[in-house]
Hints:
Elements: H1 6-26, H2 40-73
Helix pairs in contact: 1-2
Amino acid sequence: MGLDIRTPIGLMFSVLGLILAGFGLIGSREIYGKSLGINVNLWWGIVLLAFGAMMLVFGLRTSKAQAEAERVEH
């Protein structure tokens, strides 16, 4: 049929989550003084990565089901 929008959205959020979580892991600890010492970049990077992975799984699962349905029809 076409490209499921969940696939590119999942890729985008996964890449951004990896970048943000990586920055949270290797970044300076002094910048988290205003956030009560919570590593906000790391936690939100993990959230974005989890959301992106979920979107990728749903998008790829739907694509696989559509491809199999088209194969059965022909």
